[in-house]
Design goal:
The protein has 356 residues and is α+β, with helices and mostly antiparallel strands. Helices cover 21% and strands 29% of the residues. The protein contains nine helices and 19 strands. The strands form four sheets. Strands 16-17-13-15-14-19-1-18 form an eight-stranded mixed sheet. A five-stranded antiparallel sheet has the order 6-7-11-9-10. A four-stranded mixed sheet has the order 2-3-5-4, with helices on one face. The protein is globular and about 60 Å long. The chain starts with a strand and ends in a 9-residue tail after the last strand.
């Protein structure tokens, strides 16, 4: 469950989308990226490919799977699917619990397109390949003195999938991961490659959260912050104590969230704040105390998720969050006692991304 203030949304007409992301991309003023784009370079690695998401809740048998090593390979795969007349879907870690990756056409796995391609320390920007998992980014960015502004509490997702689905962490003043995106490179259905930047704000807002509908993302340009360390504190509290201090906890901390556990009717609270405290060991940059962790941001944000699970998530206006939580609690303590999985409560800043 996520709360946030309502954001003003922009408008994008059907004509703008067609002109910007279809065959008339050049007419719309978008830069086209040249390449060899040899369709003969594509060869499906496996026919009748069985795929499932991470939890196993979504499965499909695709006609074929492609694992491109370059943008040219992506172009070739897209054009081959177009000629064959079947659909194409891209998968990363399969973390989504919805059937976004399922298809009977071609599945494109971007795991070989990973890594940080370019870092501009002065501008605090970096270009990363779309198949990069979030945990691939932390160390290279840290070595350049940079860090992501915010992260979710799971870092197994590929960056393209994470932004396509509006993945977010928590923090009243901090947006989703997609709000950190300032540019993208996509292979669209025609096989052309287009660059989208902040110079095309409507197209960027369409592409920042697209559910994979606009094309195959190959590169993501990110806005970054100077590297920082985080101090995590976790505490247990009664439901009443947690909810009575909810507003102040959200306002007083860079990050605040809690898990309500129905079986105990209690909460596990977590706060994250920047700190100058260093590690107490030369062999590790992370310091662990009782109920506390201190370290580089990319090491402290994620938590271990070793048990497969399915979840649903809803976003409501911040002012309605406490009442919504109260009603869910009543349902789970009464009608749905069999549901014992924790309920997570987070806050995220509003944005104007179209599907966010």
């Amino acid at each position: 469950m996520t709360t946030g203030n309502s954001g003003k949304r922009g408008t994008l007409t059907r004509r703008q989308v067609i002109r910007g992301l279809g065959g008339a991309a050049a007419v719309a003023g978008l830069p086209l990226v040249t390449g060899s784009r040899s369709a003969s370079a594509f060869q499906a690695e496996e026919a009748g490919y069985d795929w499932s998401n991470g939890s196993g809740s979504v499965t499909c048998t695709a006609r074929e799977v492609a694992r491109p090593r370059s943008v040219d390979d992506v172009i070739a795969a897209v054009r081959a699917a177009e000629r064959a007349g079947h659909g194409i879907r891209v998968v990363g870690s399969g973390h989504s619990f919805t059937p976004l990756g399922a298809t009977d056409g071609t599945i494109v796995v971007l795991g070989r397109l990973r890594g940080v391609e370019d870092i501009d320390s002065e501008k605090r920007e970096a270009t990363v390949l779309a198949g990069s998992k979030l945990y691939h980014l932390g160390k290279p960015l840290l070595d350049a003195g940079l860090a992501l502004e915010n992260m979710p509490d799971i870092d197994r997702q590929a960056i393209a999938g994470a932004i396509a689905t509006g993945t977010h962490g928590t923090g009243e003043t901090l947006g989703s991961l997609s709000t950190q995106v300032i540019g993208m490179r996509l292979v669209i259905a025609s096989g052309e490659v287009i660059e989208i930047s902040e110079r095309e704000p409507d197209l960027l807002r369409a592409a920042q959260v697209s559910l994979g509908a606009l094309g195959v993302v190959t590169h993501v340009r990110l806005r970054l912050l100077p590297a920082y360390r985080l101090h995590e504190k976790t505490r247990t509290a009664s439901y009443e104590e947690c909810t009575d201090t909810l507003a102040s906890r959200i306002a007083e901390n860079r990050h605040f969230e809690f898990f309500w556990v129905s079986g105990r009717d209690a909460c596990m609270k977590k706060t994250l704040n920047t700190t100058a405290i260093e590690a107490d060991s030369e062999t590790s940059d992370t310091r662990t105390l009782s109920g506390e962790r201190i370290g580089p941001a990319h090491e402290i944000f994620p938590s271990a998720r070793n048990t497969p699970f399915n979840e649903i998530a809803y976003s409501v206006p911040a002012e309605e969050g406490p009442d919504c939580l109260s009603e869910l609690r009543e349902l789970m303590l009464g009608k749905h006692k069999a549901i014992t999985w924790p309920l997570e409560y987070r806050t995220v800043a509003a944005d104007d991304i179209f599907l966010s």
